[in-house]
Amino acid sequence: MSLMAGVLAVALLAPVPLAPEYVALGDSYASGAGAGSYVDGSCRRSKNAYPALHGTDFPTFKFVACTGATTKSLKPQLKALTPATSFVTITIGGNDLGFVEVMTTCTLNGDKSCEKRVGKARAFTRDQLPARLDATYTAIKTAAPNAQLVVLGYPRLFTPNDECRNLSKRKRQALNDAADELSEVTSAAAGRAGARYVDVREAFADHGVCADEPWINPLIRPVDDSYHPNKAGQAAYFEALTE
C-alpha cells in the first residue's frame, strides 16, 4: 500500500468529529418563566432564558426545559439527549420540594405556617432530594455520555434588609435559609456526578424580590411568573454560566 493510500484509509476509518450540540433541560428557572418573550406558552420557554442566550453559540440547540418539571417528570426531556450531545445544562429540584406550595403558604399565611412549610421542604431536601438528583444526573450521563453537564442552582429570593409586603423578615430569612440548603445539596450531587455546579446566589445578592433593582419577580400576574427571575435575572444566570 502506498503512503497516500495508507493516509486515506486512516482518514476514512477515523471518527467524524461531531458538531457541538447543546441540550437545555430543567424547570421554570431554566425555561425562563417570568422573563417574558415566550416562544412556547405551555412550557413558558423564553427568548430571554439563559439557555436561549447561550444556545446561539451552538450549531445545534435543543431547548426542552419546561415549567413545572421535577426530577420525576424529566423523562420526556431526556429524549432530546443523544451520544452526539456535547453540552447539557439543567436547573431542577425546586418543584420536587414543593416550591409553589411553599411560596403560596408563605405569602398568604403567618410566620409560623410559613416556617413549618419551609421546614418540611428542607427535610425533603436533606432526606430525599439527593437520591433523586443522583438518579437524574446518572440518566443524563447515560443518554449523553460525551456531554459536559453543567448544573445551575437557585438564587436566594430576598435581599435580607429589604422590606416586602406580606413577607416578614422571619419569612424571608426562612426562605433564604432553605435556598442555601438546596444549593448545598445540589452542589454536592453535581460533584458526585462529575458535573460543574454554577452557584448564582452571590450574583443575585443585591437583587432580591424587593430590592431597588430586583432580578426576581414579586407576586405578579400571571401568578406562575411570580418569584422567578425576570429578564435581568436570566441575563445574570447567563453571565454566571459563561464566566
Q: In words, what does this structure look like?
A:
- There is one protein chain.
- This protein is α/β, with parallel strands linked by helices and 243 residues long.
- It has one domain (19-242): SGNH hydrolase (Rossmann fold, 3-Layer(aba) Sandwich), CATH 3.40.50.
- It is 42% helix and 12% strand.
- The protein has helices at residues 3-13, 28-31, 50-55, 75-78, 99-108, 111-127, 129-143, 169-192, 231-242, and strands at 21-26, 38-40, 45-46, 60-63, 87-91, 148-152, 196-198.
- The strands form 2 sheets. It has a 5-stranded parallel β-sheet with strand order 4-1-5-6-7. A two-stranded antiparallel sheet has the order 2-3.
- β6 (148-152), α8 and β7 form a beta-alpha-beta unit.
- α5 (99-108) runs antiparallel to α6, α6 (111-127) packs parallel to α8 and α7 packs across α8.
- It starts with a helix and ends with a helix.
- Mean pLDDT is 92; it is low at 7-17.
User: What is the terminal-to-terminal distance?
Assistant: 50 Å
Give the class-level CATH name: Alpha Beta
Going by CATH, the architecture would be 3-Layer(aba) Sandwich
Q: Overall mean pLDDT score?
A: 92
Say which CATH homologous superfamily is assigned: SGNH hydrolase
Identify the quaternary structure here.
single chain
Please indicate the percent range of residues in DSSP E strands (runs of 2 or more): 5-15%
User: Strand pairing plus helix content: what structural class?
Assistant: alpha/beta
Main β-sheet description: 5 strands, parallel
The secondary-structure element order is HEHEEHEHEHHHEHEH
Number of strands: 7
Q: Which outline best applies?
A: globular
How do the strands line up in the largest sheet? 4-1-5-6-7
The Rg value, from CA coordinates, equals 20 Å
- Unreliable stretches, pLDDT < 50, 5 or more residues? 7-17
Number of alpha- plus pi-helical segments: 9
Count of domain modules: 1
Annotated CATH topology: Rossmann fold
> Percent helix among the residues?
40-55%
